[in-house]
Design a protein that fits this description.
Elements (H helix, E strand, L loop, with lengths): L1 E6 L6 E6 L3 H10 L5 E6 H15 L4 E4 L8 H13 L7 E6 L1 H13 L5 E6 L2 H7 L4 E6 L2 E8 L4 E4 L9 H17 L1 H9 L1 H5 L5 H17 L14 H11 L4 H19 L4 H15 L8 H4 L14 E9 L2 E8 H15 L1
Helix pairs in contact: 3-4, 5-6, 5-9, 6-7, 6-11, 6-12, 10-11, 11-12
The chain binds nicotinamide-adenine-dinucleotide (NAD) and zinc ion.
The site of zinc ion (ZN) has 5 residues, from helix 11.
Length: 354
């Protein structure tokens, strides 16, 4: 079991992340002992696959189950959850346990921040993406008015329990998604990139070594510890994400992690045109993204999806698009482009890679 402590520089509180077998069935019940009540939040798929096991580990606790999927990461789900917590008369001394992927973690974390102005919450990430990325760092949100993560709050969970047992039921496509965020981390930290290349065979067979999961958690925790509110270094974690979010909104059928891989390819190509880059490295990074994706999916014409990049929260001006692009091993640049230039380059890149 690896234990990683996320201690924000500016905060007295700490969040502990347990990664390894037994995190769910041993560490979680131990951590919940001091809470008067527990309320579980999960989604339909996790409930179907893991409901019986959850009851074995946590006993007879109230559970609210949301329908699975990003399309339900909405205010309706958030308020339905808050209503269920209120109806169960959950007190301020109780806690919310989110058991699911990034959607459950994001909605549940926000509900925990709002309920009685904040109650304790615990994350049990059940997808690879949630283990290596979304459960760490305390960002919570719902999508609102068609804009991803428009309404949210920073809210660190008391602890995170990343247990590989859950990955046994994860569909291959979801495993690929998690590897997408691991590739993003690899683009930001040379040592992780080397490890990804070294473990390439295992990764392509979609078997993800638990030590690599822990390394990714430790990396994300270290970035968040330095800059929890995303005023500086945490911005690096948006690598590939401006384009990824636009594609995610346009494609609908493609998941976040797949769009991150696509976004990384587009933004690496944009970097090539604007920055001094290590060409050999970008080639390696792009081929890794393509290999994880399997093949580049059919995309709608660029002019249909590029306007969605203007909705990105990272943009600093109304008609400019800011991308976080890889340039050399472990190095990224923020590149601000007038929208027309971004749209033209995206169209050219799409013609080249598809
Ligand atoms: N808060 C953050 O810092 C952060 C970072 C990255 C992504 N995110 C958010 O996370 C979300 C994506 O997360 P995700 O990919 O986990 O999506 P998800 O929560 O929708 O899970 C993907 C699918 O896997 C199913 N699932 C979950 N666990 C399973 C298991 N063990 N076995 C079988 N099926 C299982 C879910 O029901 C769902 O159908 C997006 O909304 C994204 O914006 C947040
Ligand atoms: Zn992401």
């Amino acid at each position: 079991m690896r234990t990683i402590v996320l201690h924000e520089e500016a905060q007295p509180s700490k969040s502990t992340i347990y990664c390894g077998e037994g995190a769910f069935e041993r560490e979680l019940p131990r951590a919940l002992e001091s809470y008067s009540e527990r309320f579980v939040f999960t989604d339909g798929n996790v409930s179907r696959l893991w409901g019986a096991r959850i009851r074995e580990v946590l006993g007879d606790v109230p559970v609210f189950t949301m329908p699975a999927g990003e399309e339900h990461k909405t205010e309706e789900t958030l308020f339905a959850l808050l209503q269920a917590m209120a109806k169960a008369q959950l007190h301020r001394t109780g806690c919310l346990v989110m058991i699911g992927g990034g959607v459950v973690g994001d909605v549940g974390g926000l509900a925990a921040a709002l309920y009685m102005r904040g109650i304790a919450c615990f994350q049990v990430p059940t997808t690879l993406l949630a283990q290596v990325d979304s459960s760490v760092g305390g960002k919570t949100a719902i999508d609102f008015l068609g804009i991803k993560n428009l309404v949210g709050a920073f809210n660190q969970p008391e602890a995170v329990f990343a247990d590989p047992c859950f990955l046994s039921t994860l569909p291959p496509r979801e495993v690929r998604c998690g590897i997408g965020e691991m590739v993003k981390h690899g683009a930001l930290k040379e040592e992780l990139f080397e490890k990804l290349l070294m473990r390439r065979k295992e990764l392509m067979a979609l078997s993800v070594p638990v030590d690599l999961i822990a390394d990714n958690i430790a990396f994300k925790a270290s970035v968040v510890a330095e800059d929890a509110k995303e005023s500086g270094p945490r911005k690096s974690l948006n690598l590939g994400h401006t384009t990824a979010h636009a594609l995610e909104l346009a494609l609908k059928t493609r998941s976040h992690g797949e769009c991150v891989l696509l976004g990384t390819i587009f933004e690496a190509e944009i970097a090539r045109r604007h920055e001094t880059c290590d060409e050999g490295y970008l080639f390696e990074l792009i081929s890794l993204c393509k290999e994880v994706l399997g093949s580049i999916p059919a995309l709608p014409p660029a002019k249909e999806w590029t306007p969605l990049a203007l909705l990105d929260k990272k943009n600093t001006a109304k008609d400019a698009v800011v991308v976080t692009a890889p340039v050399c091993r472990g190095t990224y640049r923020l590149i601000a482009l007038p929208y027309a230039e971004y749209a033209r380059e995206a169209e050219e890149i799409q013609a080249k890679i598809c």
